[in-house]
Design brief:
Layout lengths: L4 E4 L6 E3 L1 H11 L6 H18 L10 H12 L5 H14 L5 E3 L3 H10 L3 E6 L5 H7 L8 E4 H4 L6 H11 L6 E5 L2 H9 L4 E5 L15 E2 L5 H4 L2
Parallel strand pairs: 1-4, 1-6, 4-5, 6-7, 7-8
Antiparallel strand pairs: 2-3
The structure holds magnesium ion (MG).
């Protein structure tokens, strides 16, 4: 069956964030200056580590950041305990500046899909602040179905959140494609209901070397190629 509905993950799929710029500034304040590209690479690798080894922790407000920063600083080879402590203190000070915003191409991709008569939905593991973020980014009007873990009381990769999304949209899994950046939540989860999926990752399979999943794209800009 032809794909006529696409489900998206939110973080690092439809939206990006200013985390790396904040980390760069905090590193500089801690006396451990790094280039933005190095920080971005370390951020990606730390994210992939948590997706693989500590599933579910990334979304947790309290226990998440400290454990995440430890891995991030390890990837950046910041070893001095004082510099690490300064980084933590600086990030605590900056925590309210963190924001999520659309990729420069998000609107166009969604627009083009709708032009072709393809429906779009969201299945996101996020807290109750998700709708506010979607609204601020103009995404609530652009997505046909929205399913958020904190509202649903279940999260990816639980099969039931994908079933709920299918019920809400009135679609069958075979006519849908899922797109996300977390293999263990997005690809494994959507496969449980028989959905095909595309995995977002930078070139050369950086950070996902353990996977042999073939359908890897760099961003949602490539989605249209798969549904021609
Ligand atoms: Mg994501």
């Amino acid at each position: 069956m032809r794909v006529n509905y696409i489900w998206f993950d939110l973080g690092l799929t439809l939206l990006t964030n200013n985390h790396c710029q904040s980390y760069k500034e905090a590193l500089e304040a801690a006396g451990s200056k790094r280039e933005l590209a190095e920080v971005e690479r370390a951020y990606h690798l730390a994210n992939k580590y948590f997706m693989r080894r500590r599933p579910g922790l990334l979304g947790q407000k309290n226990s998440g950041p400290a454990a995440f920063f430890d891995v991030l600083l390890d990837r950046l080879e910041v070893k001095d305990p004082q510099a690490r402590a300064l980084f933590f203190a600086e990030m605590k000070r900056k925590k309210d500046n963190i924001c999520w915003h659309k990729f420069p191409f998000t609107d166009e991709v969604l627009y083009r899909l709708h032009e072709r008569g393809i429906g779009t939905g969201l299945i996101s593991n996020w807290d109750l602040g998700c709708r506010g973020i979607l609204k601020d980014n103009g995404l609530l009007e652009q997505l046909d179905t929205v399913v958020i873990s904190a509202e649903a009381g279940m999260e990816k990769p639980d099969k039931r959140i994908f079933q709920l999304a299918l019920e809400k949209s009135g679609r069958k899994a075979e006519e849908c494609l899922y797109v996300g950046d977390n293999y263990y939540d997005d690809v494994v989860g959507s496969a449980k209901v028989g959905m095909k999926a595309l995995l977002i990752n930078p070139p050369d399979r950086l950070g996902i070397e353990e996977l042999d999943y073939p359908d890897v794209i760099e961003s949602i800009k490539e989605v249209e190629r798969y549904i021609a």
